[in-house]
Specification:
By secondary structure, the chain is mainly α. The chain has a single domain (about 30-415, about 455-515), classed as Amino acid/polyamine transporter I (Up-down Bundle), CATH 1.20.1740.10. Helices cover about 65% and strands about 0% of the residues. Helix 16 packs across helix 18 (about 375-385). It starts with a helix and ends in a 14-residue tail after the last helix. About 55% of the residues are buried. The model is unreliable at about 435-440 (pLDDT under 50).
């Protein structure tokens, strides 16, 4: 009897999800395999927040110091929570894999919605495709760092070494998302446990074995290693260190059409992910800074990662340090599984609305697995091609990180700005207010979903989120030091401008003939 009742609940939720999707004009073609825990595993682990705090801390130590790292982390944590809360409201209003570009289309005035929607989708593709590559670069450089640690006199890293390691990471992620794609929810649920256990497996040995510094050194030490005109400018340049670990917080959004009870699960998943990862990230940051020892030794390490040197100074053991770093390496490999899933679903959704090149091929679903395997394979190919960037570029990770951050912020700023305008003008109705009335500027009735922040808090949070995007976007293009050389240049500004101009050119030359916003499939 209990099993029958449970099956009845599942069927009721499935019908509700299909109604939500039908209201958006879409048919249910993907199988809803994800629940709260499995989706939390995907969205939490793909962000690599506490792991990213360790990986990127060298940049922040040079620009801001330990005090700057702590301050910028808290600001970034609060800023991203302010960004993702309004996006969670939109995910409840329109739970679709299309995400930001679909929301822009239904929020924007008729005169601009087509172009703004297309640009948002174009930027979103850049975010997720580059995120997969960034995960590959991270795994590759961690392996090279371990080789430097274990073979300091005989190992020399070459660019092509890193490229091959990137390809290996991408190939593994492709295998998990294609051959093992039907079991991805269970895999992500397991990775969630590894994500939490790995945190304690590193913090406990650090606290037990290291010689800790005093609190004054941790919370009051500022650094301007980049040679900027002022400490304040150095701090703002270093904030990208703590922007990177929160990129990808919208991962659950692009799995909406594979999630049960998406209008409720997706918003709560977004908020829980930010809060939970923020707690782990802050705990790891403070722990590492207290166990850091000599900052000069950490910054001068040949491994490329100060945290590896911090681990070694704490354990005084090459084997122990290797094991601790391998925990992060395994989790960085695992993170690419979720990044790959989000990237392929975003690409598939945009192709479904004829927004990307080769849309007819990309949109195809394999009937046996009900997975967008063509989009999965294309994501693999793109990441393999981007892997060539690593050859001859020692700043590949930093540039890709900055490009991912700037594109994500731009893709989030457009729907947040439109949502704020719709809030102020009162265009979005509650479910009790004239459900049959369609706004003059849109074909979609703007109705709040079941998850919403009450006013005036919703508007205040929306404004704070836009303010943080403006700051993070501006400083994501800055190099690591005031003295810029071809080797230290932050090329993300060129990458961002190129991708934006290429998207504009493609739209007016070809895309606008086929892209008319999200296609209505059910009416």
């Amino acid at each position: 009897m209990q099993k029958q009742e449970w099956n009845g609940v599942i069927q009721q939720l499935s019908r509700r999800d299909e109604r939500h999707l039908s209201r958006l004009g879409k048919r249910q073609v993907l199988k809803r395999r994800f629940g709260m825990i499995s989706l939390l595993g995907l969205s939490t682990t793909l962000m690599l927040t506490w792991e990213g705090v360790l990986v990127y801390m060298g940049f922040g130590l040079a620009n801001g110091g330990s005090a700057g790292l702590i301050t910028s982390f808290l600001l970034s944590w609060f800023g991203f929570l302010s960004i993702m809360t309004p996006l969670a409201e939109l995910a409840s209003m329109a739970p679709t894999a299309s995400g930001q570009y679909h929301w822009v289309f239904i929020l924007a005035p008729r005169s601009t919605r087509k172009l703004l929607s297309y640009l948002t989708g174009w930027l979103s593709i850049a975010v997720w495709q580059s995120m997969v590559t960034m995960g590959g670069v991270l795994s590759a450089t961690l392996i090279q760092g371990l080789l430097y640690l274990n073979y300091p006199d005989s190992f020399t890293a070459e660019g092509w070494h890193g490229t091959l390691l990137i390809w290996a990471t991408v190939a593994l992620a492709w295998f998990v998302n294609s051959t093992l794609g039907r079991w991805l929810p269970k895999i992500e649920g397991f990775i969630l446990y590894l994500h939490v256990l790995g945190f304690f497996a590193i913090t406990i040995p650090l606290l037990h074995l290291s010689q800790r510094v005093d609190a004054a050194q941790v919370f009051t030490t500022w650094s301007n290693g980049g040679g900027w005109p002022s400490m304040g400018l150095a701090f703002f340049v270093g904030i990208v260190t703590n922007v990177g670990p929160f990129i990808g917080a919208d991962g659950a959004v692009h799995m909406a059409e594979e999630t049960q009870n998406a209008a409720i699960v997706i918003p709560w998943n977004i908020i829980i992910t930010i809060v939970f990862n923020g707690l782990l990230g802050f705990g790891m940051l403070v722990t590492t800074l207290f166990c850091m020892g000599s900052i000069d030794s950490a910054m001068e390490t040949p491994t490329g990662y100060p945290f590896i040197q911090i681990f070694y100074m704490s354990t005084l053991s090459t084997t122990g340090t290797t094991l601790m770093v391998c925990i992060i390496l395994v989790l960085s490999y695992a993170a690419t599984f979720g990044q790959f899933a989000g990237a392929s679903r975003q690409l598939w959704a945009f192709a479904r609305d004829r927004g990307s090149p080769f849309s007819r091929w990309l949109v195809q679903i394999r009937p046996r697995s009900l997975l967008p395997l063509n989009a999965v394979t294309t994501t693999c190919i793109i990441s393999v091609l981007l892997g060539f960037i690593n050859i001859g570029s020692e700043t590949a990770l930093e540039s890709i990180l900055s490009f991912t951050a700037s594109s994500w912020e731009a893709a989030a700023a457009i729907p947040l700005s439109l949502l704020l305008w719709n809030r102020i003008t009162g265009r979005i109705k509650t479910r009790s207010q004239h459900l049959d009335i369609i706004d003059a500027d849109t074909d979609f009735p703007l109705i709040w979903g079941p998850w919403r922040v009450p006013e005036p808090f919703g508007t205040i949070i929306n404004i704070i989120g836009l303010c943080w995007i403006s700051i993070a976007f501006f400083f994501s293009f800055w190099p690591s030091s005031a003295t810029v050389t071809p080797a230290t240049m932050n090329y993300s500004v060129l990458m961002t401008v190129f991708w934006f101009l290429f998207g504009i050119t493609y739209y007016f030359a070809y895309g606008r003939k086929y892209y008319n916003g999200p296609i209505v499939e059910t009416r």
